[in-house]
Amino acid sequence: AQKVTQAQTEISVVEKEDVTLDCVYETRDTTYYLFWYKQPPSGELVFLIRRNSFDEQNEISGRYSWNFQKSTSSFNFTITASQVVDSAVYFCALTSGGSYIPTFGRGTSLIVHP
Amino acid sequence: ETGVTQTPRHLVMGMTNKKSLKCEQHLGHNAMYWYKQSAKKPLELMFVYNFKEQTENNSVPSRFSPECPNSSHLFLHLHTLQPEDSALYLCASSQGAAGLVPGANVLTFGAGSRLTVL
After folding, report:
1. Which residues of chain B neighbour A95 with C-beta distances below 8 Å?
2. Which residue of B has its CA nearest to A106?
3. CB A43, CB B108: distance < 8 Å
4. What's the average model confidence in pLDDT over A49-67?
5. What average pLDDT does range B36-52 have in this prediction?
């Protein structure tokens, strides 16, 4: 069985603050993939990043960075110097065991105030 | 058109109506998905089709009836719905089982159909 936990239901910050969204996963498989998606108010989920279980390198893309730690089964997402346009619901997801169907977390709603 | 297109974007129906939601993708993907997203609830996977064959039915009530005539089109037929079925219905597509590494599939989502049942 696989599971994704996003314990933070809603986070509210002021523009330019840094914010970290937590994601903890569970799987018995040694090969798996982790994803982050963003859902802005328009409704469409947009893919942000994918990592496989064999690549623990952290990744930075502009103001976004991801910290993958197998030791704590976490794949956290940090937004540096947040902006109002970052306001959205962010979903963490997991595929494992060769399945192509992801398990999604409950999502974290991020509200960035001007 | 690129991406995943869902129509209609908004739908209001009575409990005795019959309506359908449509999803279309021209990405060359082989798998298509229906998700339900209710307020304050997580994404709920409803159905998955891979190469037009249903591979997942997540205990969805029979008042929701999916149809996948080909790999590019997916429908969700609705009849005798309940007010609690009001939600955002999201369609997605991916390479599915035919992908080089199925687990690495990225889903492409449509903007959703906002359904209100009166």
Report:
1. 102-105
2. B42
3. no
4. 92
5. 92
- Which of B10, B46, B105 should be substituted to probe chain A, the one whose Cβ sees the most A Cβ atoms within 10 Å? B105
Is the Cβ pair A97, B111 closer than 8 Å? Answer: no
Going by the DSSP 8-state scheme, the letter that residue B107 receives in this structure is P
Burial of A78-89, coded b for 16+ CB within 10 Å and e otherwise, reads bbeebeeebbbb
At B60-93, the pLDDT tens digits run: 999 999 999 999 999 999 999 999 999 999 999 9
Chain pair A-B, CB pairs under 8 angstroms? 61
Angle at A108 between CA A104 and CA A113, to 5 degrees: 155
Alpha-carbon distance values, A37 to B20, B65, B70 (Å): 27, 27, 27
Interface check for A47 against chain B (CB to CB < 8 A): the answer is yes
**Residue of B97, B103, B111 lying closest to A33 (CB–CB):** B103
Token pair recorded at residue A47:
């893919």
Could you tell me which of A92, A86, A88 has the C-alpha nearest to residue A106? A92
Q: How far apart are CA B106 and CA B92, in angstroms?
A: 10
Interface touch A95/B103, C-beta < 8 Å: yes
Q: Report the alpha-carbon distance of residue A14 to residue A70 in Å, rounded.
A: 31
Tokens (6 digits) for A59 = 């990744």
